[in-house]
Every structure is written in structure tokens, then in C-alpha cells.
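Deliverable D2.4 — example input (C-alpha cells):
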């Protein structure tokens, strides 16, 4: 009987994994099914642009899979039964059995336990939520305040994009730690200049502890006006893997060995944000497109090797740079060492913006190719 390889999630990691596996296993008796909650590929790295009202390219999954033998199931995976090697879905066929499973379900914004965050704050949890934020922000009167909570890459890119698009709004940025931590001194200076040029009021070292309909409250009790709030403090992997009994870390990511295979269930693999992969010297993988795509390629190679009786090579994830867009005409490309620490070298300004745009376009070319 044909071996059934099921890939959960058609984002950067899952789509690349499924397409590469299909190519590499084309002469083997393997059936590949890709299960995704939506019927299009979402360019998640552009969600801040969608929140600012820009249109994104339509990338229907059937188009991206045309000419491959991959079966696409447009359904949400609700649970996995590890003992029965079955995934349960929210619609027909309701369950799918697997011989090998790749979990590539990405991650979701983590709202934590901050009172009011779930009720009053927006997130960038997919295209629908980004469009909802845009509808809210675009209707605000001039002089209204938008608060972005989270000084990481998602918070920075979104506050800059919104500030550039809506100069009549007041933009505030809250970070429990510093803003742009992890950048070299030169890149840090550029970031500060860009935020002040865009009129963003930054509140580093300010932890937001409550969200109200028109304000946020910091840990020292100070209220800050906020007519719209974006919560962007971090992401967590979906609960499906942990609930199925697959070994996970404290962020819900699957714990995998050097070949991206679950340490608890050898027939299960994990890639992208859903996996805590190993890096060359930087601990576990950072949730990023930069690691999701190589993991997708490498899991396809590992599975191909095992299904064709060869010993797989360990996966190799290395960091080269971090890039941040600051609106459409400015940005930072921070070159990094293999352990993800910043080098002195960084690109800034228009060159960095053009570099980032080229990288983002190349990710779509890569998911088309697989
Ligand atoms: C605004 C923003 C900007 C970013 N910018 C950058 C950047 O510049 N560089 C960078 O490296 N990273 C960036 N990232 C992070 C990057 O987007 C993620 O790390 C990357 O998308 C992870 O890829 P993935 O394949 O693991 O998950 P995803 O791309 O999220 O794909 C997961 C897929 O699984 C599907 N799915 C989820 N749950 C289910 C379910 N239960 N059943 C079926 N399908 C399901 C989803 O619909 C989705 O298609 C950014 C993120 C955001 C939000």
C-alpha cells in the first residue's frame, strides 16, 4: 500500500516541504496530502502592509500546486490522534490517516493573561485580522492614537507602516524591554531616527498590563490613550501538537532532533514556527521565515532519505541577516553571525528597503518552486 505523507499547514515551511518531497519522491510509492485552513497562501511577512491598507498578491494554493501530485485538503486540523496516526478535521473527510506527518502549523499571537487584551486589542493573526485592524485604523479621526504593544520585529514593522500611511494619527510603541534590542549600535541609531522621523512616540521599558476600550495601562499604573491597540508581544505554536502528546517546549513548539523528527513520535516531524529546531550555535530556531523555508526543504530531504533507505543528513539552520521594513522606503538589514548575534555591518534606508522587498519576493518564488 502507498505510504501516506501528510503535511499540516501550507505556509512557508509546509508548502516548501510538500512540494520538494513530491519532486524528490516522484518515483516512490508515496501519496502526499497537504492540509491547510485556507485556500490561499498567505504572505505572512507582509501582514503589516495589509494592516496599512496595501493590497497583497492573490496566491491561491491550487495554482501553487498545479502540476504536482499533491492532494490539497482545505480544512482546519482540530486534533491529532497519535496512537491511531490520524488527524481530525473540521470538515469532510473529517479524518485523515498518515504514515508520516509533518506539522507546519506556524504560530499565533500570544495574548497572555493581560486583562482586556483578548477583548480590545487587535492582532496580526492572519489576513482577516490584519484587514480588521486596517478597517479600524482607517476610520479613526485625525489626532487619534494607535498603540502598538511589542517592540519586536512585528511591532516595529507595523508601527512604521501605519505611521507612514496615516501621518495624521499619533503612533505609540510600547516595549517591556528596549526597542530594537539585538541590533548593532549603528542599526539602533538608524531605528531611533526613523521612528522619530515617522512621529512614533516610543515607550521602551514600559510593560502594558491592562487594555481598555480607549486606553492601555502600564505596570506603574500610568494610563495612555489608545483608540486602537495592536498586540504584538510574541507568538506561540498552536496547541494541537501538545494536545496530541507530541513532545513540546514551553512555547508549544514541537521538540525535534537534528533531523526535525519529533523526539517522542518518530513518524512525526515539525518545521517552521511550530518546531524548536536546532541551529549552529544559536540554541533553538527563532520563529522566522528565514528558518521556516530551509526547514521545509530539509525535512523533505530527511523524509526522502528515510523512505528510500538512506541515512539522512542532519538539518542545518544558519542565520545570515535580520531585515526590518520601516515603511516602504526605509529599512534595516542587520547582518548576523551564525549564532544570530549582530555583526557591525548593516544596511539602512532605501537600500535596505529594496533589499527586504527583494528577499520577500524571493520567498514567493521559492514557494512556487518548492
Ligand atoms: C507582520 C509580520 C512580519 C514578519 N516579517 C518577517 C520577516 O521580515 N522575516 C522573517 O524571517 N519572518 C518574518 N515574520 C515571521 C514569519 O512570517 C513566520 O516566522 C513564518 O510565516 C513561519 O512560517 P510557517 O510556515 O512556520 O508558518 P505560517 O507561514 O504561519 O504557515 C502556517 C500555515 O498553517 C495553516 N494553519 C494554521 N493552523 C491550522 C490548522 N489548525 N489546520 C490547518 N491549517 C492550519 C495556516 O493557515 C498557514 O497557512 C513576520 C511575521 C509577521 C506577523
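Example output (designed residues):
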Amino acid at each position: 500500500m502507498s505510504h501516506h505523507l501528510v503535511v499540516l499547514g501550507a505556509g512557508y515551511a509546509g508548502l516548501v516541504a510538500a512540494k520538494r518531497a513530491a519532486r524528490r519522491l516522484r518515483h516512490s510509492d508515496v501519496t502526499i496530502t497537504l492540509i491547510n485552513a485556507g485556500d490561499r497562501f498567505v504572505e505572512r511577512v507582509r501582514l503589516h502592509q495589509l494592516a496599512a491598507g496595501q493590497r497583497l498578491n492573490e496566491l491561491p494554493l491550487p495554482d501553487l500546486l498545479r502540476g504536482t501530485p499533491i492532494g490539497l485538503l482545505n480544512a482546519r486540523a482540530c486534533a491529532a490522534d497519535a496512537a491511531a496516526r490520524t488527524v481530525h478535521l473540521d470538515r469532510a473527510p473529517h479524518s485523515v490517516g498518515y504514515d508520516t506527518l509533518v506539522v507546519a502549523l506556524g504560530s499565533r499571537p500570544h495574548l497572555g493573561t493581560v486583562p482586556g487584551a483578548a477583548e480590545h486589542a487587535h492582532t496580526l493573526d492572519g489576513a482577516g485580522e490584519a484587514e480588521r485592524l486596517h478597517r479600524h485604523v482607517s476610520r479613526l479621526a485625525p489626532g487619534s492614537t494607535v498603540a502598538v504593544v511589542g517592540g519586536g520585529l512585528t511591532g516595529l514593522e507595523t508601527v512604521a507602516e501605519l505611521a507612514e500611511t496615516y501621518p495624521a494619527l499619533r503612533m505609540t510603541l510600547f516595549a517591556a524591554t528596549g526597542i530594537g534590542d539585538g541590533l548593532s549600535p549603528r542599526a539602533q541609531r538608524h531605528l531611533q531616527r526613523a521612528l522619530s522621523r515617522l512621529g512614533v512616540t516610543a515607550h521602551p521599558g514600559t510593560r502594558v498590563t491592562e487594555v481598555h476600550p480607549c486606553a492601555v495601562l502600564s505596570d506603574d499604573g500610568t494610563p495612555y490613550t489608545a483608540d486602537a491597540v495592536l498586540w504584538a508581544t510574541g507568538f506561540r505554536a498552536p496547541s494541537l501538537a501538545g494536545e496530541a502528546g507530541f513532545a513540546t517546549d514551553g512555547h508549544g513548539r514541537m521538540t525535534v532532533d537534528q533531523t526535525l523528527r519529533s523526539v517522542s513520535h518518530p513518524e512525526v516531524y515539525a518545521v517552521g514556527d511550530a518546531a524548536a529546531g536546532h541551529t549552529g550555535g544559536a540554541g533553538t530556531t527563532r520563529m522566522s521565515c528565514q528558518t521556516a523555508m530551509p526547514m521545509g526543504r530539509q525535512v523533505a530531504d530527511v523524509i526522502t532519505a528515510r523512505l528510500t533507505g538512506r541515512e539522512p543528513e542532519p538539518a542545518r539552520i544558519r542565520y545570515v541577516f535580520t531585515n526590518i521594513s520601516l515603511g516602504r522606503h526605509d529599512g534595516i538589514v542587520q547582518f548576523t553571525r551564525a549564532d544570530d548575534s549582530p555583526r557591525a555591518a548593516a544596511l539602512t534606508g532605501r537600500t535596505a528597503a529594496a533589499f527586504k522587498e527583494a528577499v520577500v519576493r524571493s520567498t514567493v518564488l521559492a514557494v512556487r518552486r518548492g
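The pocket of flavin-adenine dinucleotide is lined by residues 8-14, 35-38, 42, 44-45, 47-48, 76-77, 104-106, 124, 153-154, 157, 238, 272-274, 287-290, 292, 323 (CB under 6 Å).
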